[in-house]
């Protein structure tokens, strides 16, 4: 018997496509789930499948060897019209499946048990199911395992949707910040051109240059967060130029970075560390005096190190406060360091000194 369409089929298919899972590559996260289901339920076949228009498509499978089959012979096409969990001890005793070639052939599927995969709107998208070539029943623990693993499949898919939504939101925010900075820069440039006072024009030109540098720095953070490998030395040459424009006139900044590429995540983390250290130096150690800030970033094979220092007024007590994370900047640095599997080392020797080392592998 051919499966009937769901009463809300159009809406159901729309929800399925919202997850963007169809026709994606096999992934370990899902392969491990079907392997565990097959092992614990002691069945030769286990699949994570989604009921698409005219076909059922398998995200992961054990013992099947195909990625899709026609909907006309789908067992799960019947099951998604039922309860959250369906067990069929003998498919040939079920009128919906007794003439199904997948069940009547040799070796046919004589046993079926599946937990429904439901979208956020409650509509069924597919199943996590196990099949056997002989009639049987699951025990209570095996049924619970299938239900728990099915929820894990949907948690993974929902998490991916949430992360994608966060990326879209971040891109929108970045776009708006970029446009806002550009608008402010254009307004200041117009005011500078129209001002009859040379001093006002000079001041406005300086402000405009700082805004352009801020916009460029924002773009660097945005670009390095988008994935891929990043050329380290050119990136930090640009960042050095952009940050210098934002610093007080008496503060000089130098950044030296190794040649070569690193992963975008590491590059962005190093950017955050540099930005926070420079901001803290200007706010505290160099708040009332001229001075220098230097940053050295080295990457050798899989190991990296970043050394930041200034010649400001920081003393041992200031280094202890930074190590304790008493300020927002030092808290950010500590959090970023933790995400990289390391910890910041603070010291003061005629200025503040920050050292971090880690593995880039």
From TrEMBL:
The keyword Kinase applies. It catalyses: ATP + protein L-histidine = ADP + protein N-phospho-L-histidine. InterPro entries: GAF, GAF-like_dom_sf, HATPase_C_sf, HATPase_dom, His_kinase_dom, Sig_transdc_His_kin_sub2_dim/P, Sig_transdc_His_kinase_HWE. It is an enzyme of class 2 (transferase). GO terms for molecular function: ATP binding; protein histidine kinase activity. PANTHER family: GAF DOMAIN-CONTAINING PROTEIN, SLR1143 PROTEIN. This is histidine kinase.
